[in-house]
């Protein structure tokens, strides 16, 4: 592949769409460029696990015909795209990595997929996930293990790990994932790309669900884009956002804009570490680096600002709601067995493991009490963001770690030579996720080992275009996507 082709493979989706629109490259040529890279790199990476290239090639030809006619085209016209395996894509399996759902073939596209297609995205495949979308790693019995493009011995993250790996390796133009415990943000951090967890229910989730005609929204969970530029996040959010058909009868979206503002007017709070989930010094240093850059640009930085609750209170509330939601994904037989197991627990056992198990089978009364506490958190954040525009925090304790497919209870993370619980780091995702807040992850460059480190920018509910706008400002300062060295040819 020539240097120009490699440069094109790592370009932003909006740049690619502009080139197709301006006839600098055809949609067919662009798709073929990515397919050639998939054939070269994906066998070892294993990021793209469902392939509908023939269908996409036919679509690319119709897209080129539209450009030739001078038709009006969408903001992603001709951009080759993959989507997370957990989205319904007509004619393809939606398994969530679960062998029991191997034959669950979607009959209709997810609503967000329809919107992306209407905007011109040319979807040619789906990307790998962990079992039930419930891990910081992406592997399952159906599709196998996805590797990190910066180091194949390490995880790309989860659950949108295939999404982030495909993007970072230059195998796709843009991606869309989902997030309940950092599943967009964690892979973006591990793979050095941009990712956005939207405000809860701002993007209609219908068609991103387990088998069945599921019309409810899973608590906490959202769908959202991953990309190689902040501008792409902005484009994708605008394409996918909006009320569902029922709500649209009386509601419309009117998001606050960042455009037209200056970093000199920005008020930034910083939460760079926490005893609930300590992060490595090199991760904390990247939070400081981002804030230093914002401060140098004129923003006001406050490292002492906190909302009016404790981090433990927030995390306990998040865990109670998260565990109940994740348990809903269990097969009925497994759930009944879990209830029997919990019934036998010692009433005096208040260990973290026992708390998790009880939360998984909590009564409606207990869930309702946690939900009430969640809304107290929401209002506390609401008051907090009257004083600050954004909050900058870590998203994980370390860069990407080595593959570890052992039992969850046996897994540990080493953080500055200290052994910590594996799932402890869901804290940084839950801090904002439980309260429905938008969060944008930006890359901050590679560490000495050549691994990416990301930082998350959090805003108030419906402040999505502001957090993305600040991310774009930081990208312009120098916090950009850095391609993995072994994928540049």
Quick rundown:
The chain has 489 residues and is an alpha+beta fold. It contains 15 helices and 15 strands.
Description:
This protein has 489 residues and is of the alpha+beta class. It folds into 2 domains: 3-266 and 468-487, Amidase signature (AS) enzymes (Alpha-Beta Complex); 311-384, no CATH class. It has 15 helices and 15 strands. The protein has helices at residues 3-9, 13-21, 27-45, 53-69, 111-118, 161-168, 185-191, 230-240, 281-296, 311-327, 332-343, 352-360, 364-384, 427-433, 464-477, and strands at 48-51, 80-84, 122-127, 139-140, 144-145, 175-179, 194-197, 222-227, 267-270, 300-302, 390-393, 412-415, 418-421, 439-446, 452-458. The strands form 4 sheets. An 8-stranded mixed β-sheet has the order 6-8-7-14-15-11-9-10, with helices on both faces. A 3-stranded mixed β-sheet has the order 1-3-2. Strands 4-5 form a two-stranded antiparallel ribbon. β12 (412-415) and β13 form a beta hairpin. α8 runs antiparallel to α15 (464-477) and α10 (311-327) crosses α13. The protein is globular and about 70 Å long. The chain starts with a helix and ends in a 12-residue tail after the last helix.
């Amino acid at each position: 592949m020539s240097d120009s082709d490699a440069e094109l493979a790592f370009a932003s989706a909006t740049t690619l769409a502009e080139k197709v629109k301006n006839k600098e490259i055809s949609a067919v040529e662009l798709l073929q460029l990515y397919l050639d890279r998939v054939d070269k790199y994906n066998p070892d990476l294993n990021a793209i696990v469902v392939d509908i290239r023939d269908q996409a090639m036919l679509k690319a030809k119709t897209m080129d015909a539209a450009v030739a006619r001078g038709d009006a085209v969408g903001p992603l016209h001709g951009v080759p795209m993959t989507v997370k395996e957990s989205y319904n894509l007509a004619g393809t399996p939606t398994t969530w990595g679960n062998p029991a759902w191997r034959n669950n073939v979607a009959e209709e596209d997810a609503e967000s997929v329809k919107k992306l297609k209407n905007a011109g995205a040319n979807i040619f495949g789906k990307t790998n996930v962990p079992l039930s979308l419930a891990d910081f790693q992406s592997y399952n019995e159906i599709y196998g293990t996805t590797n990190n493009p910066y180091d194949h011995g390490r995880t790309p993250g989860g659950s949108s790990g295939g999404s982030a790996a495909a993007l970072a390796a230059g195998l796709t133009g843009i991606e869309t994932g989902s997030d309940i415990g950092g599943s967009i943000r964690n892979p973006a951090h591990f793979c050095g790309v941009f990712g956005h967890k939207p405000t809860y229910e701002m993007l209609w989730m219908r068609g991103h669900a387990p088998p069945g005609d599921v019309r409810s929204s899973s608590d906490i969970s959202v769908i959202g884009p991953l990309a190689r530029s902040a501008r792409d996040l902005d484009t994708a959010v605008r394409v996918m956002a909006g009320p569902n058909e029922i709500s649209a009868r009386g509601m419309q979206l009117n998001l606050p804009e960042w455009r037209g503002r200056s970093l000199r007017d920005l008020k930034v709070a910083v939460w760079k570490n926490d005893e609930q989930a300590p992060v490595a010094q090199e991760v904390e240093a990247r939070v400081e680096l981002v804030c230093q850059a914002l401060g140098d640009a004129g923003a006001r930085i406050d490292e002492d600002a906190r909302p009016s609750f404790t981090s433990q209170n927030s995390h306990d509330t998040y865990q109670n709601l998260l565990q109940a939601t994740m348990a809903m994904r269990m097969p009925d037989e497994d759930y009944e067995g879990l209830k029997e197991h919990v019934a036998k627990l010692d009433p005096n056992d208040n260990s973290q493991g026992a708390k998790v198990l009880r939360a998984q089978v909590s009564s409606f009364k207990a869930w309702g009490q946690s939900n009430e506490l969640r809304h107290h958190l929401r209002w506390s954040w609401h008051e907090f963001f009257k004083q600050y525009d954004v909050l900058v925090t870590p998203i994980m304790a370390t860069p990407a770690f080595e593959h570890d497919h052992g039992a969850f209870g046996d897994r540990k993370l080493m953080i500055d030579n200290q052994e910590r619980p594996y799932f402890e780091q869901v804290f940084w995702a839950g801090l904002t996720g439980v309260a429905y807040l938008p969060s944008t992850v930006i890359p901050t460059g590679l560490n000495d080992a050549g691994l990416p480190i990301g930082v998350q920018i959090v805003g108030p509910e419906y402040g999505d275009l502001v957090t993305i706008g600040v991310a774009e400002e930081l990208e312009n300062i120098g916090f950009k996507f850095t391609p993995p060295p072994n994928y540049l040819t």
